[in-house]
Amino acid sequence: MQAADGVGRDILPRSRKTRGVLAVLALAGSGRVLRTRLTGLLWSRRGNDQARASLRQSVHELQRALGPNASALLLANRNHLSLAQDRIWVDASVLANATANAPQGLELFRRSLLDDLVNLDPAFDRWIADERLRMMQGARSVAEQLLTTNRDVQGQISAAERLLAIDPVHEGAWRALIRAHMDQSDRAAARTALERCTSTFCSAGLMPPDDMASLFDSLLHERLPAISSLQRNEAPRGIRLVVQVPRALDIGEPDCRLAGLAEEITVAVSQFRWIFCATGVSESATDTAEVAKARTWQRHDFDYLLDSTVQRSENRLRIITRLLDVHDGGQVVWAHRFDRPANDALTLQDEIAGEMAAQIDPVLLLREGERLVSRRMGEPSAYVLVHRAIPAIYRLEPSSFQAAGEMLGQAVAVEPGHAPAHAWWAYWHLLAVGQGWAKDPVAATLRAGELAERAVMLDPCDARALALVGHVRGFLHKRPEEACALHERALSLNANLPLAWCFSGFAHSYLGHHEEAIRRITRAQRLSPHDPHAFFFDMALMMPHFLRGDFEQAMVAGRRAIELNPSCSSTYKGYLATLGHLGLQQEAARLLGRLLILEPEFSVRSAIERSPMMRSVDLALYADGLRRAGLPED
Questions:
Q1: Tens digit of pLDDT for each residue in 258-273?
Q2: How far is Cα 71 from Cα 84, in angstroms, rounded to an integer?
Q3: Which of 66, 573, 575, 618 would disulfide-bridge 558, Cβ 3.0–4.6 Å?
Q4: Nearest residue to 308 (alpha-carbon basis) of 366, 260, 239
Q5: What is the pTM of this model?
């Protein structure tokens, strides 16, 4: 819940009960609310006299929060309370007035209405549930009308995505979305939609409709076009990877264990939604079902092959894995050796599969981006534009970073329903603000929030989008509790996504949970020790160490982050505060000069204003370190 006055000042009451009173009045529209109704919703387990006294106290708090205009905004008499509707704007009211002819209010729909006020009172929880249902039904009705009246294919896709953001298990919307993609001859997009449909229904504990499962099965056996055969205006929507069953270098290694490892790797990699993954077949396979599966996959064209060998030595197991680019003559683009104790086969498979998936994903992201940058095409799709932009986002070089922002903006314009484009563009705005490159930080912050929320609406099951959105919510909007919830959702969808572990560590650190932050960021580093974002992980690890007073560890992590990427200004800030507390004035002066080249206007005041730290003691420690290091106050 949020409340602000005309100049943007936060006027949300501190007490959750008073916020509940404000919520009921805001959602009542122009109607007056009986005081007995409010006491029954928020103090249902108290006696009448005590409940009325609590309500009077909440009304006084609400009047103080509203400030000088309280008497004109909050209308109160002995029996009723109401808000002056002609003097306030309520997002839910705009949503309630949306129609098929004026659907703009649908953008305001949120499935998580008043999540921060749950558990105030059993009666209030039931009221929230009723309000959520009422809003969902109204928004769904308008969205269904839009889907029915839209005739062009792109309009059907946008309308179906909008309806699914409101009702994720709407069968008609899924059918319309899949049919529209098939009408565009975009089988990859149709297949992605089918996979999303299956995942969404399963997450909700439901069985996908039979006709969709049959359609999925028919698509699965169709031949996908090779990348080399795509026409000028066609573009891939994901890369295709086959995981070969590992080859045993030792005589007597059981085939079932090797096949199990291949299946675990396939499952782990498939959690990255942009990678279409399948298990290959071992050379010695004779099983009829396995051979039949191999023949099915041989009808597909793959972009990459994951090949592994396994060798045992007493109680140790060594697995050597290579990622081969099929379209580049089998060039090895990534290789790694895993040495593990060979005690628990299932735990071993799970750990290795997770680490492989975590390390393969960023390698493929960068390689796909570099490949698409060098490839000429007439009208690139959102997928192409996003992946062209990603390498520049990782590098943080000013000119290419600006070009990446333009490409992401174009991707959103080309495909308004493409969730990753919205998520990466939101992240781009976050980095622009964090680096001090945003011409209008306030506008960039607002834009990042809009894009982030749109990304989640478009695809609530995209783990990377949820992680990026969560970081926007935590860092830019200073709402780390909401960020933690989004990160947990992302990790439940893909526990092998290092970026989600890192961003969740940030959010916990903002809340003052520094030990938990260190655990989570260390998990990200362990999953992908050579990640292209490794500098970001070290920068993230520096801050909880710093805030818990371990300045030596903070300095080690900060120095390593700067060595890996000297263009990330956020690293200099935490490192500079660390040097200030350690009294290393000479090194601090040198580092301060480099920081002010990257961000000439940076000061103690701007550091405090931008910081998302929730605890005053953490903020004071940070500001004091910057002052000691010589950073100007203003």
A1: 667 777 888 888 778 6
A2: 10
A3: 575
A4: 260
A5: 0.57
